[in-house]
């Protein structure tokens, strides 16, 4: 007799949620309740059921939680907290709504939580090789709100038979440009597609680790199917400098050009060299998409 794993995916239309939903729906034995503020009017996949949920207002997920084995918390505000309105949004969505959902899990009992967090919670300066054991010291309102989610997710673990997993992701790259946050990659691609000038400040030696959202989804699926608990960094393991990123974009869009400026930005010394050996060992995690292939898919 086959056993169905029932998954509640909160935030199914976001950068991570979109690819994760596709992967879960294509995996035998998975049944998904997918939430979004505005679900699609039709769903061709028999194992996916949509539910309209707006975390910024009043919402009711008790029934969906009760019938689910795994709850994936991927929805979040990406506001910077630059204004009082943005601070309130972060407080309401990333703290209060997340706390309410996780509290409901503890009441239901015997649930599995996968919380999607951010590497921005880490203490600066970064370690030369970044691991899950590195200390946290969030310095922005957004990173503070994500760290709160980690704290309460850890509090859930072991409560009333519940277990928690947390992933911290680096710079995710979806398959569609419109899904991307306003990151340096999106800004530079937009400039280059218009034949404009990409401006690199300082030596351009600051690095980032860009990872395809599909690879993040694969890591999440491994956590679910293997029933893993704990903290995992999901990244490509291949950091790229800003100078190299600009050159890579122009190699695909030669009508654009790169100009360097000598002024040194604040974060010019940051090096995101992420150790993904824990995910590799526990989850058999192996990113399949490099940055060039991700860029080409965005341009297609």
Compose a concise summary of this entry:
This protein is an alpha/beta fold. It is 36% helix and 20% strand. It has a single domain (5-173, 210-238, 273-288), classed as NAD(P)-binding Rossmann-like Domain (Rossmann fold, 3-Layer(aba) Sandwich), CATH 3.40.50.720.
Features:
300 residues, Rossmann fold, two-stranded parallel ribbon, 9 helices, 36% helix, globular
Describe this structure in words.
This protein is of the alpha/beta class and 300 residues long. The chain has one domain (5-173, 210-238, 273-288): NAD(P)-binding Rossmann-like Domain (Rossmann fold). It is 36% helix and 20% strand. It has 9 helices and 13 strands. The protein has helices at 15-25, 62-66, 84-108, 141-156, 184-193, 213-226, 242-252, 277-283, 291-299, and strands at 5-10, 30-36, 48-52, 70-73, 112-118, 163-169, 171-173, 197-201, 207-208, 210-212, 230-234, 240-241, 257-261. A 7-stranded parallel β-sheet has the order 3-2-1-4-5-6-11, sandwiched between helices. Helix 1 (15-25) links the parallel strand 1 and strand 2 (30-36). Helix 1 crosses helix 6 (213-226) and helix 3 packs parallel to helix 4. The termini are far apart.
Largest sheet: 7 strands, parallel
CATH superfamily: NAD(P)-binding Rossmann-like Domain
CATH topology: Rossmann fold
Uncertain segments are none
Q: What pattern of helices and strands is seen along the backbone?
A: EHEEHEHEHEEHEEEHEEHEHH
Number of DSSP E strands: 13
């Amino acid at each position: 007799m086959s056993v169905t794993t029932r998954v509640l995916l909160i935030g199914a239309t976001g950068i991570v949620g979109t690819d994760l939903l596709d992967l879960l729906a294509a995996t035998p034995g998975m049944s998904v309740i997918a939430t979004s503020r505005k679900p699609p009017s039709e769903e061709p996949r028999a194992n996916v059921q949509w539910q309209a949920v707006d975390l910024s207002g009043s919402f009711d997920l008790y029934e969906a939680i009760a019938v689910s084995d795994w709850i994936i918390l991927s929805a979040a505000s990406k506001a910077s907290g630059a204004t009082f309105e943005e601070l309130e949004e972060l407080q309401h969505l990333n703290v209060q709504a997340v706390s309410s959902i996780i509290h409901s899990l503890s009441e239901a009992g015997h649930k599995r939580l996968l919380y999607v967090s951010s590497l921005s919670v880490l203490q600066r300066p970064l370690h030369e090789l970044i691991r899950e054991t590195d200390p946290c010291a969030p310095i922005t309102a957004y990173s503070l709100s994500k760290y709160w989610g980690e704290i309460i997710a850890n509090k859930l673990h072991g409560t009333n038979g519940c277990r928690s997993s947390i992933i911290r992701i680096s710079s995710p790259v979806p398959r569609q440009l419109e899904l991307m946050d306003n990151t340096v990659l999106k800004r530079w691609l937009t400039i280059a597609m218009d034949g404009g000038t990409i401006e690199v400040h300082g030596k351009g030696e600051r690095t980032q680790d860009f990872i395809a959202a599909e690879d993040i989804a694969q890591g999440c699926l491994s956590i679910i199917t293997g029933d893993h608990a704990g903290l995992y960094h999901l990244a490509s393991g291949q950091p790229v400098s800003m100078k190299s990123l600009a050159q890579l974009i122009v190699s695909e869009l030669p009508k654009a050009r790169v100009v360097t400026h000598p002024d040194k930005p604040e974060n010019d010394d940051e090096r995101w060299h992420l150790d993904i050996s824990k995910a590799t060992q526990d989850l058999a995690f192996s990113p399949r998409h490099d940055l060039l292939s991700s860029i080409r898919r965005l341009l297609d």
